[in-house]
Amino acid sequence: xxxxxxxxxxxxxxxxxxxxxxxxxxxxxxxxxxxxxxxxxxxxxxxxxxxxxxxxxxxxxxxxxxxxxxxxxxxxxxxxxxxxxxxxxxxxxxxxxxxxxxxxxxxxxxxxxxxxxxxxxxxxxxxxxxxxxxxxxxxxxxxxxxxxxxxxxxxxxxxxxxxxxxxxxxxxxxxxxxxxxxxxxxxxxxxxxxxxxxxxxxxxxxxxxxxxxxxxxxxxxxxxxxxxxxxxxxxxxxxxxxxxxxxxxxxxxxxxxxxxxxxxxxxxxxxxxxxxxxxxxxxxxxxxxxxxxxxxxxxxxxxxxxxxxxxxxxxxxxxxxxxxxxxxxxxxxxxxxxxxxxx
Length: 343
Ligand SMILES: Cc1cc2nc3c(=O)[nH]c(=O)nc-3n(C[C@H](O)[C@H](O)[C@H](O)COP(=O)(O)O)c2cc1C
Hints:
Elements: H1 9-17, H2 22-36, H3 41-45, E1 54-56, E2 59-61, E3 65-67, H4 78-83, E4 88-94, E5 107-110, E6 115-118, H5 127-136, E7 142-147, H6 158-169, E8 175-179, H7 194-215, E9 221-225, H8 231-243, E10 248-251, E11 272-275, H9 279-293, E12 299-302, H10 308-316, E13 321-324, H11 326-331, H12 334-342
Parallel strand pairs: 3-4, 3-13, 4-7, 7-8, 8-9, 9-10, 10-12, 12-13
Antiparallel strand pairs: 1-2, 5-6, 6-11
Helix pairs in contact: 6-7, 7-8, 8-9
Bound molecules: flavin mononucleotide.
Flavin mononucleotide binds at residues 68-70, 73, 93, 107, 116, 118, 120, 122, 146, 179, 182, 224, 253-254, 274-275, 278, 302-305, 324-327.
């Protein structure tokens, strides 16, 4: 039985959270979620959702709806988010060393269209801290770990950072997401070009083979791309991912486009835009990725998922799994239940 009536979120919890600036509210959520993650308290927050299993990348997901990367960057509240009914959770993006990220303010709500602009810049407590939390988790669903590079690491040495993270999380992750599409880390998105991407993926695939033997476990590698790629770039990324046997593609990260929120509050802030205004942009990229991949490898669809219709749009465009972040902020935990139960 569900104890906490999440349908009250928009009327009671959200107004309080929205009195705070976006990042402070995020901190309140993570700290409360951390506190509530301990049993038996956690049982009060458990949300029963339908069991609608899917098998993707050789992994069993209890349903196709996941929490996108960036909300639980340090894997501090995974048991709480797991209790909300997600079939998978992607923690991170984590970097080898802890880093503060960009100066505040760096997260903005665009309430009129249920969007968010963020330029966090991979603020996180470093991979060692994340690994300690991974070890303690009781969440039994599929766990992805998103990995990235420190801001101070030059782009030409980026591979080293991804390797460090991969080596450290491999034993504890169900899949690893290679984040090369965050628009808030200088030049990171350049890793989506042919030459650097080929080098990065080849190296990580070689490492994956070694780690597979070492841990007697195959951990799929997923590449997360952005929504602002040209058609040629999408074709290149897809071709490389298939050739180099990447296990999946996540599309998409946030967009730097602003035409879709022209004239709205905070539209002049730089950073990545997510939520409802990203939906159509991300869907277009998803459709093109699907066209290029022709089913060769699975796709995780993310960007503007907030209800059954937007989740189905992703699946109809070729996604095997969907993820969400922004709609959880606007609609609360019920969004998970509504999608999972009706998809
Ligand atoms: C505040 C914030 C921080 C994010 N941080 C990350 C991150 O660290 N790594 C990542 O791959 N994506 C990150 N994202 C992007 C989300 O994972 C997702 O791709 C994007 O928000 C689109 O989904 P949505 O429209 O459901 O929010 C972040 C998004 C937001 C809003």
